[in-house]
Write a structure and sequence with these properties.
By secondary structure, this protein is of the alpha+beta class. The chain contains 5 helices and 8 strands, in the order βααβββαβαβββα. The relative contact order is 0.13.
Length: 156
């Protein structure tokens, strides 16, 4: 089954209830507070994937992105829209350079061309992993070759 067509809506700082409703429905395992949602929204990084069915629109997924660092902080798809590829298409639309993900979701991100960066770390209560778009690893390597050890981009 192909992913449903969706539109993207940018959330306002006051959209905490809307975001929290999706996070709760999707049983997101980490508490996401109103300050984090508002901060992301002020930066333009609170995004909703909205699916239209008939005359009604449904919030299908929510993402929080730190737009300054191009880091995906949260991606949660409503259970009714899981398994159809909507999460993959939403991630493809967002195309963040980095993602901080739960260790249990690393394989899902690897299938979408993200690679682990460094070692997993313990968050407040769950193991997390920083991921990077695979294509950026090659770029960092080429820059390091060009600039040598003085390149600030050189990976350890």
């Amino acid at each position: 089954m192909p992913p449903p067509n969706f539109t993207i809506e940018i959330g306002a700082p006051q959209a905490y209830a809307r975001a929290k409703s999706l996070l709760n429905a999707g049983r997101h395992p980490v508490f996401i507070g109103p300050n984090m949602v508002a901060r992301s929204a002020r930066q333009g990084g609170l995004l909703f994937a909205v699916v239209r069915r008939g005359k009604r629109s449904h919030d299908a997924a929510v993402a929080l992105v730190n737009v300054r660092t191009s880091t995906l902080l949260v991606l949660n798809v409503h259970p009714h829209f899981r398994g159809a590829g909507l999460g993959s298409k939403f991630l493809e639309f967002l195309r963040p350079n980095f993602a901080r993900v739960l260790a249990t979701t690393v394989p899902w991100f690897q299938q979408r061309d993200y690679a682990p960066l460094g070692e997993p770390r313990m968050g407040r209560s769950l193991l997390t992993q920083v991921m990077v778009r695979q294509e950026l690893l090659g770029l960092a390597g080429r820059m390091a070759q060009h600039f040598g050890e003085t390149c600030p981009c050189a990976l350890p």
